[in-house]
Structure formats: C-alpha cells, structure tokens
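fyi for ur records
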Amino acid sequence: MKKLGTYMKRYGLLYLLGFTVMVIGTALDMLAPLITRRIIDDVIAGGRMELLMRLLLGLLGIGIGRAIFQYIKEFSYDYIGVSVGYHMRRDLFRHIQTMSMDFFDRHNTGELMTRTKEDVDKVWGAVGFVGILSVEALIYTVLALVCMFRLNPYLTLVPLAVLPLIGFCAVRMENGLGRVYDQISEETAELNTVAQECIAGVRTVKAFARENYEIEKFSRHNQLFYDLNMEQAKLVAKYQPLITFWGKVMLLAVVIAGGMMVITGRMTLGALGAFSEYANNVIWPMELLGWLCNDLASGAASWKKIKKVAQQTPQIKDPAAKDTQYNNSPETLRAHYSTQDSSAAAAQHNGTASGALTFEHVGFSLDGHEILKDINITLRPGQTLGIMGMTGAGKTTIVNLLQRFYDVTEGRILLDGTDIRDLPLAKLRASSAVVMQDVFLFSDSVTENIKTGCREEIQMPTVEWACRQAGAAHFISRLGNQYETIIGERGVGLSGGQKQRISIARALAKQAPILILDDATSALDMETEKAIQKNLKELKQSTKIIIGHRISAVRSADEIIVLENHTIAERGTHEELMALKGRYYQTWCVQYEVENATGRTRTSGQADVPVGNAPTCRKETILCQ
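which gave:
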C-alpha cells in the first residue's frame, strides 16, 4: 500500500480548489460584520437611508456567494474522502490477497474485516470533510481575530485571553480520545470476530447447545466495547461543556467591555456590533473543536492499524512479481493481476506443465515444530500417489507445500524438473486442481462454484461433464434451478456429500495436469466413492495425489506411502504393503473383516469383495488416520 500522503497527492488540484473556495467563503463571512457596522453607524445612527438598499444587497450577495462556495467546498472534499477511501480499501484488500498463509494464521477474520471497513471509513473522514473543516475552523478563527484586532486591539485581548483555556481543554480531550480510540479499534475487531465465528458456525453451536455460552462470550466483548465507548463519552462530556462555557464567557466579556467603551466614546456602537458578531462567529470553531479532535484522533488511530497490516510482506515470494511492488499505482497493480490471470489460463489450456513431480529430501518446520522430514517422492505424468497416515502425520502439509501455501524448509519440490519456488505462483497453482479437506463453496450458483477461478475458460459442457464424473449431476438436476441454483453461504442447504461432489466437480472441470484429493470422499457412501474412483482412473493424463483414511480410496494407486513420525514409514503398491504386514496392513485389518475360509473381505453394509488369499489379521491393530 501507498503512504497516506500519496493517496491525497493525486487529488492535489481538487484540494487546492476546495481550499480556495473555502478561503473565499470565509473572507465573505468576514465582510458581513463590516456591513453590519455600517448599517448601525451610517444608516441607523447617521440617518443615511440611501445606503441601506446597497448594504442589504451586499448582505444578500454575501449569502449567495457563501452558499455557492460552501457547496463547491463540501462536494470537493466529500469527493476526495470517498475516492481516497475507495482506493485505500481496494489496495488494502489487494495487499491482503497477496499475503501468505502464515499471515492468515496470525490474523483473524474479524480483525481484517474491521481494517478494510470501519478503519478505512474513519481515515476517509479525516482526509475529507473532517480534515478540511478543521483547517477551515483554524483559518476562520485567525481571520476573525485579525478583523477584531483592526476594530479594537484592546478589546481583542478578551478573546485572546480565553482561547488558550479552550485550547488546553481541546488538547486534553484529544490526548484521552486518541488512547481510547486505539482500544475501541482493537475491541471492534474482537467483537466482529466473535460474531462472525458464531454466525458462520451456527450449526455447530446449535448441535452442541452452545447458545448460552456464545451469548455470554459475545456479551463479555460487547460489555468491554460498551465500557470503552462510555469512557469516550465521559471524556467528551467532561471537556466539551467547558469549551462551550468558555466560549459563552468570552462573548459575555466582549459585550460588557465593549459596552463600557461605547459609553465612554472609545468605540462606536456599530464597531461593537461588528466585533460581537466576529466574537460570536469564532465560537463555532471552538465548539466543534472537540468533535473535530475526536474524529481526527479516530482517523489517526485507524491509520496506524491499517499501516500495521500494510507493512507486512508475504513470506512466499512470487518470481513473476519481483519487479512489482504492491504499493505501486493502480494501473501497475491491474496489469500485474491481469498478467497473473493470463498466465493461469495459459498454463491450464496450453499444457505448459506435464505433471511430473519430485520431492527431494523435503522437510518442513513451522514455529519450531517439525512436521515433515526427508520426504522423497517421484511421480511421472499420469501416475497416482496414495497417501495415508495418522492425524497430524503431515498428509495435508504435503498439499500445502505443493501449492506453495508454505515453502519447504529443507530440500526442494520439482514440477517438470523445475523448483516450484522458481515458477510464477499463477502458473504453479494453475497446474493443479485441489479438492480441499475442508470444502468451501461460495454463495453463488452451482455453475459459478464449479467455474471458480476459470469462469471465462470453462464452458457449460465441461461443467456438466465434471458433474457427471463427480456423481453430482443427479442431485443437481433435482435442485430448483438446477445448475443455476444459488447455494447458501459455505454451501448451507447441501449435505456434506453433496458439497464434496461439487468440490470434486470443480477440480475436474479445471482439467489441470495435477489432481489432488485431500480426503475428498470422506462424506460419500462406498458406492458413490467407488464410482468416482472408477472415473478418476480414466483420467490417464492427470497426475493424481489421493489422501485418504480409507484403504478403498488409495488401494489402486501406483504407489502408496504411509506417513508416521513426520516421515515416510512405508511405501509400495497395495499388494506390496499388504505383504509387508506393517502399518498399512494393520489399517486394512481394522477396516475390513478377513475370512480365510472364503478368501473374501466384508465391510459393514457392503457386499463381499474378493481379495484373493488374504491372511488372517493380528489382533493388535493400529488405525492410520
């Protein structure tokens, strides 16, 4: 992201226009009391009635001019504020999109939502209308004091004596508000996070009867948010009345002192009227001072939060973006993202990747914890790799490393003989299609969910083919609008199996050289899983990595690896691993009942499946999950 001054600089001419008309409007306001003085001294006291019409027309002209210039000023600075907010929010969101997965591990959703919405809105106000109103209040006060000094320098000492008291109150209030607004910004992020998690996970909340717990949790944060806002209100209530009080005291003192000067003949009645009008007009900047300091302090605190996010850099470096800094112009950003999209489409449809994969002594550690070590895998184009292992063994981590969500800490991963760290991220990720363990669907139509990331390239026949291959076509045909049916947030309204099948169809429709299924059939019945596996076997051109907990998901793979203690404990084909009688064999025994007499296996609720002369399993079995 850019510096705040850079966002403002692009509207320099508009700032100048707004400032110019503001000064002209303020100058017109300074003329009005002088006309009032002449009406009192020359017309009322002097009896020169021939001047009245001209003076009244002068006041009317000042009013019309003031209205015109006020409109131009307010429109200009509202436009600036809205535009700065738009560009800042866009750049912040784009910056967040460039961040690596470790960034999202450290920052929760509610915090990022607060930064991109509430905090940008507060900065928008500070650089727009609130900011220029603060400048106008300062200029107005200075010009009014100059005019009062020209009328009567001795009487001007009265407002000059009171102004420091008002300034002192404003500074004290601003210091307190700056501290409170910083805390309010943090608590807003926490409150958003709690609400977002509870609403997004409402099914889990209700399933475990956690409503009261979530209400209490939200209430604690809401109470803290309330307390902070009450502290803010107390600060305003403490100092704002003092500011108003001293303003009224100043006006009263001017009238008393000025009246005595008029009585003694040291000042005309018209001059006192004009002076009183200046003194009265200078009160409004003082009364607004607290509100302006309030909003400016809020904007400053929000900008600090935004900078904290914007100053972070992605751990995963994209070779294609070495010369592109994300604080460049919008045109550069647009060109960069357009290039990424084009390279992604090219990688997908021009077959730039054949799908050959090699893991060479790959190791990975995160936050000081070793997750994988010495992983060696070689896959030729079209081959299938099955991965099994206990929970936490590192199965999904292999997918994350292959996608470069994280970078390996040891060894390297090669795609078609090239280290993936040397490949553009767009090309790398366009070369693979992933079915994630945690299925995520967007609040959009079935078609748009399947076209995710390639909506311009994937045609409807491909969508329908992918749905047939994934076993999703049948239930989609029964939806209200079939493929154009809008599914709820995160797939609400669909069963777990239906969401998995749409996710599989999404990966198949991409037709990438590498297909990765991370426990993609866990919510499917055995018959549907078997049908999908049969369809997957027909994808001869795709290199497939299948992570599963069930033997049935991986048994047909060209090679199966079993992860244990962060490394590969066993590897081989299904038959080789069965003969080895290790972890894989023990998992088989847990998942299947083996009957030596018939040489068949049976799973609960399924027909017998011949497996040849399967040996009797040992009683001590360990389930790989």
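The first strand starts at residue 357 and ends at 366. thats all i got for now
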